[in-house]
Amino acid sequence: MKIATILGARPQFIKASVVSSALKSAGIYEKIIHTGQHFDSLMSDIFFQDLGLPEPDYHLNIHSLNHGAMTGRMMEKLEEFLLQVKPDWICVYGDTNSTLAGALVAAKLCIPLAHIEAGLRSFNRQMPEEVNRVVTDHLSQLLFAPTPLAVECLQKEGIVEGVHLVGDVMMDSILTYQAKAKQTSEILVKYQLQPNKFYLATIHRPSNTDDSHRLSSILDNLTKLDFSVVFPIHPRTQAKIEKMGLSHYLNTNSILAIPPVSYLDMLMLESACKAVITDSGGIQKEAYILGRPCLTLRNETEWKETVEVGWNQLVQPETLCQAIANFTPPSEAPTLYGEGKASAKIAEIIGSCT
Ligand code: UDP
Fold first, then answer.
1. How far, in Å, are 111, 152, 202, 307, 318 from residue 270 at the CA level?
2. InterPro entries in the record, alphabetically (predicted)?
3. Which end of the chain is flanked by fewer CB atoms within 10 Å, N or C?
4. What local confidence, expressed as pLDDT, does residue 354 receive?
5. Which residues are known to be catalytic?
6. Pocket lining: 268 vs ligand 1, CB cutoff 6 Å
């Protein structure tokens, strides 16, 4: 069996690192195609180096374009390569333009498609990722859902065949790399960070970065918290901050702006911080798994379980300070994302589809 995996963005490299290793153990031959969506060393190369993900067999080098142009060019190149590779299955992750391009090409070439992290819904179609998720799920023959809620969302859209509740591959990643992070990461020492004495913030969704009033309000409110904020800045957020003339917020004692960090460093920051402030999908989950309270700067989330169990709160920039001051998550944190066996289950199911 030959599978072609299409990757392009940071969270996909992290998820694929554990699944690729499980596919290899199951004797499944994998070709990796990197679309280039995330391209610089801190957003791409570092994950391949640290996480033992095999080097991509093909690199399409497509990035820094608007959604339509990016997806279209990816489709053109992917079709070319997939016609050569002739895989039995195509595998895509999550909800990026690389996911969508891979799904559309799979459908056009009539190659069965496996979607890892299927069934997530924010129910906000203004969010580019939501459209990518819906289309990809409707084109997939195998849908690997991380949670019962994801299975339910698929059912409501009439998708029941090929759906497998396997748990979340990010749980597998954390369990796989947590010990290595503790042994090798020097990030806490490098920035002289004391456990529970800093907040960790990440912001990159267009709904937060593309409006200067909203972005300046977020930065302004980050400066008002009771502890300083470590802020590994996504390149597009950095570019927006510079373009909007908001860089002065980064030169205060309250915000420690640092370049994007490796996954191992991120696990350490997430584990040691007092709370996480984010608009990331993956980081909401990681905060929960690592037992840190999370404040999500969004109107809705596709990771609703974390809110329902009381460990994640949706907040607005203006309510952040108040929300943090009053936030006491419950002592219980039920298992929401599986036992860390999602990758093995995925490999087994794909392997059984001859
Ligand atoms: N991440 C990282 N370094 C960073 C910021 C994030 O390794 O500087 C990891 C994080 O731990 C998580 C993933 O990247 O596993 C989340 O990616 P991102 O927030 O870019 O995307 P989203 O999950 O929102 O799609």
1. 39, 30, 11, 18, 23
2. UDP_GlcNAc_Epimerase_2_dom (IPR003331), WecB-like (IPR029767)
3. C
4. 72
5. 204
6. no
